Amino acid sequence: MAKLAVIGFSAGGIPLAQQLLAALPTAYPLPVVLVTHLPPTAGSGLLPLFQSVSRLPVKLAFDKQAIAAGNVYIAPPDYHLLVERNGHFALSVDPPVKSVRPSVDVFLQSAAEVYEKHLIAVILSGANSDGADGMARVRATGGVTIVLDPLQAEFRIMPDAVIEATDVDYVASLDEIISLLLAVQDHP
């Protein structure tokens, strides 16, 4: 059974992520992690944007926090977010990867090592290739890889890079991505 869902995005991804979160029911069985590029000065600005549409509790991830089902976690600005083997988050101030921190690649690679085939990873819109290497790692460890159809992305560099980097399981519309995430409830 899937045990973690990750949604990575950058430019153009916030409204897509909002629609996706709005579709998840209060009894959603997985923790959901949102990783997006934020300037260090962003603070917790995304929190109210996602809290206003989500039926699940939305919070900023913090160091050593236990990852719990039925919650949405946002990677905090200016830190790489990772997963430890004990199911807790870790924050890192390692240098930016592909000019960004938090990095979608860093989180996906970390989560792939811990969750392997129990990970669902989604990439939405973005203006750089962050996420491509991480999705390749998710695929290599047996996780499910889902990418927004680049024709539906406001900025298609990120989804195109993922499709070029690995043989993804699904290239899908936003509605199809929502259906795939909701199917976890009925068909783990």
Please characterize this protein's 3D structure:
By secondary structure, this protein is of the alpha/beta class. It has one domain (4-186): Methylesterase CheB, C-terminal domain (Rossmann fold). It is 31% helix and 20% strand. It has six helices and nine strands. It has helices spanning 14-22, 46-51, 104-115, 132-140, 157-165, 174-186, and strands at residues 4-9, 32-36, 58-60, 72-74, 80-83, 89-92, 119-123, 144-148, 170-172. The strands form two sheets. Strands 3-4-2-1-7-8-9 form a seven-stranded parallel sheet, sandwiched between helices. Strands 5-6 form a two-stranded antiparallel ribbon. α3 (104-115) packs parallel to α4 (132-140). It is globular and about 30 Å long. The protein starts with a strand and ends with a helix. This is protein-glutamate methylesterase. Keywords: Chemotaxis, Hydrolase. Its EC number is 3.1.1.61. Residues 1-183 form the CheB-type methylesterase domain. It holds the Pfam family CheB_methylest.
Poorly predicted runs of 5 or more residues = none
Overall CATH architecture: 3-Layer(aba) Sandwich
Radius of gyration: 14 Å
What fraction of residues sit in β-strands? Answer: 15-25%
**Overall pLDDT:** 95
CATH class: Alpha Beta
* Strands in their spatial order, largest beta sheet: 3-4-2-1-7-8-9
* Structural class determined from secondary elements: alpha/beta
- In N-to-C order, the SSE pattern is EHEHEEEEHEHEHEH
Q: Write the CATH fold name.
A: Rossmann fold
Q: CATH homologous superfamily, by name? A: Methylesterase CheB, C-terminal domain
Pfam families: CheB_methylest
Protein name: protein-glutamate methylesterase
Catalytic activity: [protein]-L-glutamate 5-O-methyl ester + H2O = L-glutamyl-[protein] + methanol + H(+)
InterPro entries: CheB_C, Sig_transdc_resp-reg_Me-estase
